[in-house]
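Possible race condition, two jobs.
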Amino acid sequence: MTSRASDTVGAFAGWTTRRWLRAGVAGTLVVLAVLGSLGGWAMWRASQITDLLVEQRSPALIESIRVQEALVNQETGIRGYILTGRQDFLRPYTQGLADEKAALARLRPDLDGDRRALADLAEVEKRADTWQDRLARPVSAASPEQAGRIATARAAEAKAAFDALRASLTRQQARLTDERALATRDLHRAVTLRNWMFAVIAAVIVLVAMLVFEGLRRGVTGPLNRLGSAAREVAQGGFDRSLTGTGPADLRQLAGDVDSMRLRLVEELRFSEAARSLVDEQAEDLKRSNAELEQFAYVASHDLQEPLRKVSSFTQLLQRRYGGQLDDRADQYIAFAVDGANRMQSLINDLLAFSRVGRVHNEQRTVDLAEVLRATLDDLGIGIEESGAEITHDELPTVLGDRTQLGMLWQNLLSNAVKFRSPDRPPRIHIGAESDGGTWEFTVTDNGIGIAEEFREKVFILFQRLHTKDAYPGTGIGLAMCKKVVEFHGGTITIDPEQQPGTRVVFTLPVLAAAPAAPDREALT
């Protein structure tokens, strides 16, 4: 017996949630179908008895009473005619005949199928015909004198016939009354049965709903809540918390899968902790190396200034004093030396400015970009005027940053836009600003010669030049410095690949709280 029970429990233990739900729904539907059938039968039974009572038993009794009234009217009319001899006393008799005929016509269908009631009706009709044959018809057809003699001669016989008719009507009405009372009792019992049946159905539905709710709580929501609680503990750092599943087989399988994932995460966490320690060490080494490189670049560029100034000064002095006194090749060599010294001076100055970003200039304060832009345009005024450039901008916000670095950002971006202009058209440059949640997105758009797609990432690398120094002068540090300034302020900078013609540089900066962002175009030349 114990082994059989264990086998049964083991069989149910393999059921999934879907199988339990299917079994529960199927059982519920069977119970509801049976109860619905019983409730339908109870309603049908009550309806049948109601129809019998309303359409047959009550109308039959009423029509029987009407037949009796019609016969009494006939007897009254005949008696009045006999006593008075006046024809107008026969009107109740005539009307009674018509009423009797109509009532009998309505009564017969109501008694269809009831042999005893039909037998009673046949007896009533027979007694009525006997009375009419022996008295009513002869008297109504005779003259007043003859009617009196007929009534006198047949008085006893007519009285006996009408008394028998009345007794037949009484028996018929008594039987119809009993049948109506029986139908009424049957209706009360059927209604009571129907009400109890629906009460039982309602109780069973409530019980089924409670069982379904309890089954879902124990078999689905309870195990899921326990699993979710355990999973949240793991998510909050309790990786040593084992996940054990309960309930249907698929929920236990789910708990096992989640626990396997937990074990995998524990292993991954151990590996990531080791890797993080290694990365932290490497990051610290890289940070120290970068700091040393920045210091080296600063020291190197700073220390190169003095000997380079001497080289530049003496080569320029040599050019002024001996220019034209030597041969052409010597003048060319001197020019090369002067140009190289000047370019070296420019390169060292740019490298020194690059190394100072985030190290020397690091005053974090609110900066009005529109004011910084106006100062930058003043500095670039001669180049802008000579090139005929038109520069427009949206209303620029106030941001948190270093004013000097942001000025360098505008200067490099605008000078590049003016320098790399198209020879076919005057420069048109627009600075856009748009707020996107917690970020300002700025665009510097020009109609110049543009940047080829394959160079849109390389232009931000230090000392990367796309043109010769003869075509466009420069050191190749400008956009690299822009990238360093933007990233130092927590933003990003890219080249828009869809801008044609010209170039659109897109960079972002964090938004200050309650910073205005209403766009407005203002032309500056």
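Job #2 (started ~2 s after job #1):
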Amino acid sequence: MANRSDNGVDVEVLVIGAGVVGIYALHRALEAGFTAQTLEAGDGVGGVWYWNRYPAARFDSESYTYGYLFSKELFTEWKWEEEFATQPEIERYLNHVVDRFDLRRHIRTGQRVVRANWDDDANRWEITTEAGETILARWVISATGGLSVPHYPEVEGLEDFRGEGHHTGAWPHEPLDFAGKRVAIIGNGPSGAQMLPVISEIAAQVDLYQRTATWTTPLNNAPLTDEKRQWLSDNFEQIAQTLTARTNPTGFMHPSAGRFSTDDSPEQRQAFYEEIWKAPGFGKLTSNYWDMTTNREANLEFCEFLANKVRSIVQDPATAERLIPTDHLFGAKRPPFIADYYESFNKPNVSLVSLKETPFVRIDETGIETTEGHRDYDIIVYATGFDFGTGALTRMGITGRDGLDLSTDWEEGPSDFGGFAAHRLPNFFFPGGPHGAGGGNYPRYSQDQIDWIADTLIHARAHGFDRFEPTAEHEESWMTMIETLAPRSIFSAEHSHYYGANVAGKPRKFLLNPGGRAGLHEILDGLTATPDYDGALASTSERVAA
């Protein structure tokens, strides 16, 4: 660590996390002339794409819409191999960005933050790492994201298993040999569904343990042709404008259906659903009828179309019915977009275990026991998702002003402003945290947050301010919007991890921004354009005088 500066800090801007959001935050801070540094818990950069390196991990957002848009040269020089890139290519891309913009010398890997304490008198954060080092910073951007704390199933005996057991969100760097092995996959969300087709090609037996069925649809991936790459390069400005436009609620480039379900006849709707089945990735939602997420009858009709697809693919009728959700509509849980998922259940070495019918009893030294009996395994894969939204922030030992402690103050759910800041948490930003995503393309939303944060720090420096803190009124206004609009969301409070439903005992609080990008910008534009903006900022001399 360099010598402490005259203003009493080691670094002006400290970024926690070197994932997609953290890399961009570091770039913006350095570009603006701040001294900045990043602490990353992993031994490399990439965040979720560093940790989630399980077989078949890949984007389900188009590669070129997920990647950075701040540099035309970067956009045009990186040649994505597929519409939906695999984890190895994603990790290479993020390392390329770090090196191309000379960020690596500002990133310290293997540095897990275990405590963040606000010193109100000194107007700075004291950040402590697992190794016991303390870094003093004026501003902190905690870019730990919503998918950084793996959640394991609540079942007795997890530590007793003597075989290989790994969570998809903390996958080992050394290749895992599945050939000829007996494998259990617990969970059928995106990671479990991605792994099944690949592992079942080489494993002796694969049993997928399912709590509730999900509406899984084809990814419809394809290689990127030279012609498509050239078109992307030639149209960067238009693409960037489309993806970042405030009028684009999803951050994708998918064509709109342009109509409501009621505008078509039943026969026309069935033909349209066939087109949607063939649409890429999130196009199943974004290119669907305008009222698909608000019209229950339309959604039920689409669900029946999907159910018939499952019945036509899966040869065993009983298995097919178990794979068809009966407790939520399409989109009420984050849907996986996967190639050959349903086809995998036609393989003789693949079976489905319904945990509704035969719940867990325990995991023991040799395998898994359910109420149906015991099965031996060599490998258990925990594809059970994350403690979404709040998981990292409530575990980081964050204490703010006037006794604020996120580990206890957020026990009944988070309270924040803009999905990236909070009252009594001065100079601390958490883009991509609770209420820090609006659905759709995550990097496009988080880019909006980082840009606003960086612009605010530049404004503060230019006007002699060294503190930013939302007022209680700012926070209350934002949370009122969240709570008012949340019931209109299609996501299920009973089933979706966006409500924390996958974590036993976690309060069922909506963890996205139901107002989307438009709602975020309305709040931020309204703040920036009023005296309240400078009211949320202060200088040391003003605080002393007060």
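The CA atoms of residues 56 and 194 lie 6 Å apart.
Logs attached separately.
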